[in-house]
Amino acid sequence: MAGALESLESCLERHIPPGELAEVKRILYGGEARKLDLPTAALSAAQERDFELQGYGFEAAPEQLRRPRIVRVGLIQNKLPLPTDTAVAVQVAALHRRIEEMVGVASMCGVNIVCFQEAWTMPFAFCTREKLPWTEFAESAEDGPTTKFCQELAKKYNMVVVSPILERDELHGGILWNTAVVISNSGALLGKSRKNHIPRVGDFNESTYYMEGNTGHPVFQTQFGTIAVNICYGRHHPLNWLMYSINGAEIIFNPSATIGTLSEALWPIEARNAAIANHCFTCPINRVGTEYYKNAFTSGDGGKAHHELGHFYGSSYVAAPDGSRTPGLSRTQDGLLVVEMDLNLCRQVGDKWNFKMTGRYEMYAEKLAEAIQPYFIPNIIKEFWMRSSP
Ligand SMILES: NC(=O)NCCC(=O)O
After folding, report:
1. Which of 127, 223, 281, 324 has the fewest CB atoms within 10 Å, measured from its CB?
2. pLDDT score, position 32
3. How is residue 202 annotated by DSSP?
4. Which segments constitute the CN hydrolase domain (predicted)?
5. Domains annotated on the chain, with CATH
6. Each residue of 107-141: pLDDT tens digit?
7. Contacts with 148 (C-beta within 8 Å, 6 or more apart), sequence order
8. CA distance 97 to 111
9. Do 153 and 121 touch, CB atoms closer than 8 A?
10. What is the largest CA-CA distance in the chain?
């Protein structure tokens, strides 16, 4: 069964001899992440509320002129609490309740910035290609009930909240977007960031519902650091990560909804590589569980109609600019990952590897501008005898 393995890490811990485990972790994960000492009350609250709670920390070297810039982020992954054919308002209310109890625990753990999974207020129903009732989950990013709910959480817990929702933009023809709303720890709405790249793969039929985002690559200056949101499929696009980083993001969240058969082998690589390439922290978050739809849908591949998109494998983690990473959360359970980081590490690693300095962006800017023109001919060097061949 796709969801049966609890996590890669628990499997390694069980089967690798203790003498070799530290070396395996060094090679696979860049070392053994420091475990955070989380409050006992938070650990018991998480157990009572039936979700996994893990905490890790990344250090930076002490500097003479800058104080450490310590921030705690919280990544939340969760299943749907109710069947997908429950009334829309009842599903949304149940998801609000679930997130509220998880954010309460995040607050006990001193989290400063929390991020939820992609389209967290609804089933990931775009696979069905049906419009109703799924479009009814869309809300205003500015003053919809979910934004108001998150503003209350932000104020109550002095926490920045990143809330990825299905947005209905009433001001511009009532159109839909896949949007992350960013709320300051004061409760004020800081802004929104729309999903730039829309999947055209498998049953991820999102292009039936919304277009590629038009907000570019905004970065939000918060009290705790500069943050950006690269939504799900944007993870596969290195230039997307790059632009958030060029705009100054120190932490890039990647709220996602993706399934085992499609992307699980890519998951540990892409966001971690982005953290390395861009000298920043990246935080990929995936939902968990299998969501069932009453009406069967087809995949356009000659296969039988089915009721499920696939198993969302969770495994949310944080990657640091030096390439190290935390273990992932469970592949099957709701969870909160609390990660403490010193943002000074971004510049320290930048000064060591110099990717921003050696990136030759001017060369690529020029060449990419040429490559997108219809007259562009790829620069392939051929031996003489090949030149006349078609
Ligand atoms: N939600 C979403 O964009 N999923 C696409 C699949 C993937 O990127 O792994």
Report:
1. 223
2. 85
3. T
4. 71-343
5. 34-386 (3.60.110.10)
6. 999 999 999 999 999 999 999 999 999 999 999 99
7. none
8. 19
9. no
10. 75
Residue that is written with structure tokens 């009406």 in the block = 295
DSSP 29-93: HSS-PEEP---HHHHHHHHHTT-EEEEEEE-----SSS---EEEEEEEE---SS-TTS-HHHHHH
ipTM above threshold 0.95: yes
DSSP state of 203: T
Angle at Cα 177 formed by Cα 174 and Cα 180, nearest 5°? 125
Residue 254 in contact with residue 238, Cβ under 8 Å? Answer: no
- C-beta of 263 in contact with ligand 1 (< 6 A): yes
Burial environment of residue 257 by CB neighbours within 10 A (0 to 12, 13 to 18, 19 or more): buried
Closest ligand 1 atom to Cα of 195: 3
Answer whether residue 2 shows pLDDT above 80: no
Residue 31 is predicted with a pLDDT of 86
Q: Across 68-207, where does the E strand assignment appear?
A: 70-77, 113-115, 160-169, 175-183, 189-194
CA distance 110 to 71: 9
Q: Please tell me the distance from the alpha carbon of residue 258 to that of residue 245, in angstroms, as a whole number.
A: 24
**Residue nearest atom 1 of ligand 1, based on CA coordinates:** 257
- CA-proximal residue: ligand 1, atom 6 (nearest): 258
Identify the three-state secondary structure at position 67: coil
pLDDT digits (tens, 9 = 90+) for 47-106: 999 999 999 999 999 999 999 999 999 999 999 999 999 999 999 999 999 999 999 999
Query: Among this protein's residues, is 118 annotated catalytic?
Result: yes
Name residue, tokens 């000298």: 279
Res 58: pLDDT: 97
Q: Judge whether 11 counts as a catalytic residue.
A: no
Spatial distance between the Cα atoms of 179 and 231, rounded to a whole number of angstroms: 8
Sign, CA torsion 74/79/85/86:
negative
Q: Of 150, 232, 283, 346, which is the active-site residue?
A: 232
Contact, 152 vs 159, CB < 8 A? no
- Give catalytic status of residue 206 as yes or no: no
Nearest to 329 by CA among 9, 37, 102: 9
User: How many whole angstroms from 258 Cα to the centroid of ligand 1?
Assistant: 5
pTM comes to 0.97
For position 177, what pLDDT does the model report?
A: 98
Q: Which residues of 91-129 are buried (b: 16+ CB within 10 A; e: fewer)?
A: bbbebbebbeebbbbbbbbbbbbbbbbbbbbbbbbbbbe
**CB-ligand 1 contact for 257 (6 Å cutoff):** yes
Residue 382, both tokens: 């051929």
